[in-house]
Amino acid sequence: MKSMKSIAAGLYMAVAVAATVTMTVPAHSMPLTLPSGLNPGDTYRLVFETSITTAATSTDINFYNTFVNDFANNASLNPVLASLGTTWTAIASTAAVDAQDNTGTNLTTDGAGVSIYHLNDQIVATGNADLWDGSIANLIRSETGGFDAAPVVWIGSTATGVESIGLGLGSIN
Fold first, then answer.
1. What is this structure's pTM?
2. Which of 18, 42, 138, 162 could form a disulfide with 38 if both were Cys (CB 3.0 to 4.6 A apart)?
């Protein structure tokens, strides 16, 4: 049913990555485990699927960014993520904004980028090009480390991080 489609905080990269969020912070400021092979001061991104969902009926990308950011920074739900004090963005597309632009992962305008890791230390992508090449190294899990048992998450994007024409968030109610 069209009204049943939802987004769980960000991306469902057309390769079975569930809704996700990203951020960039210096490694030395992370209260989470430093990803293997990195050193304090290295920069990287984190990605995860939220364990809660919201209706994907808004055409405003800021609605989804606020949803993701509020979820990740809720100290009672996610004390470790909240302690980062960072801004999170949804990996999602609307008719007006592509996921790769919303997350600053557009290879053309944002360059090569940095490695992207799941919260459990698994690498997801080695940079912006790898993120949007149609496959990722590991599936994205929820902030608790599990896989969402809910139906497929709709993010309105193709595997290349642009709006799936006519299927951007908020286009189908």
1. 0.79
2. 42
